Structure formats: C-alpha cells, structure tokens
Amino acid sequence: MTRPLISTAFISLDGVMEAPGGEPGYRNSGWTFKDVEFLPEAYEIKAREQEEAGAMMMGRVSYEAFSPVWPGMTEEFARYNAMPKYVVSTTLTDDDLVSNWGETTILRSLDEVAAVKNTEGGPIIIHGSATLNRALSDAGLIDRYHLLVFPLLLGAGKRLFSATDKDTQKLKLIDHKAYANGLQMNVFDVIH
Question: How many domains does the chain have?
Fold first, then answer.
C-alpha cells in the first residue's frame, strides 16, 4: 500500500491558484481574503488535513514562501510544523533549509517522490506548489485533490492543472459542500 499524495489548494473558478494569501508579485494577490467574505466553516477541511497528514510536500518556490512564516505560527500550524517535510527541487541545497521547521528532505526527481510514496506513514499533503502539482499530476502521482473553489475569475495566473495534451484523467467526487459566501469544497479521488 502506498501513501496517498493529496494536493490541497485554494483555486478560483478558472483554476488559478497563485498568491491566495497575499504573496507579492501577482496582480490579484490576496484574493482569498479580500474578495470573498470569510466563513470559518468553509475552512474546516484545512484543520482536518493537518490532523490526517503524515508529511508535507512542496516545491522550492512554496518552500521559500512558507519557511520564513509557518514555523512561527505555532498555534495555527502546530502539526504541520512538527511533521516531516519534503521539498522537490533541483536547485535547493541543505544550506538553504531553515533550521526551525523540523525534519526536511530535498527530493531531486519525481522518481524520488514515487519512492517516498512507498514508505510507511500517513498521507502526504502538498500545499501551494503550482509547478510541482502539474508535474505530479502529469506523472500520475497525485491520489486526491482537496479544493476550495472561490467564486472568482482571476484570468492570468499560475494554474493548478496542467495544460499538457494527455489522456483523460478521471476523478471521483467523494465529498463536497457549498457555503453561503459562494465557496465550494470539493474532494476528488483520482482514479488510477
């Protein structure tokens, strides 16, 4: 049995996932909190993910955005801060890793990601990481999507899903909810 690889993302209705929390450099940065009313119940899945995950995975860009911030968020991210982390990067070195965020392993290839999936432990959750998500999806390595879909059309921006010309990838909806502010929570299993 392999460990499930779960992609979790805030996305706009047109598939953009870039800068949901206010990261600099994107025209619509911060769209999750400035353009949609906050309803705590819509984010219940985020707490559940933290409780169920056994490890966290991200690409280099997301690691560089999260690592200066998340370790200091001891209440919000206590479980994430304590769990093992994997960063998929061909350029990051051990010297680039922060020292206050627990065990972190650099993976250099999708083959190494596949090998980690074959280890013991709970689900591996992927946060952010647009480029990594597209590569993992194209390689058939993602097992589940946790999507909070915002009622926004953002146009340009990094997208969660690949534009690669490939065979149909079938999904099975296993959980969903709609909220008064227009957010939709959708959980899909990937049918391999």
Answer: 1
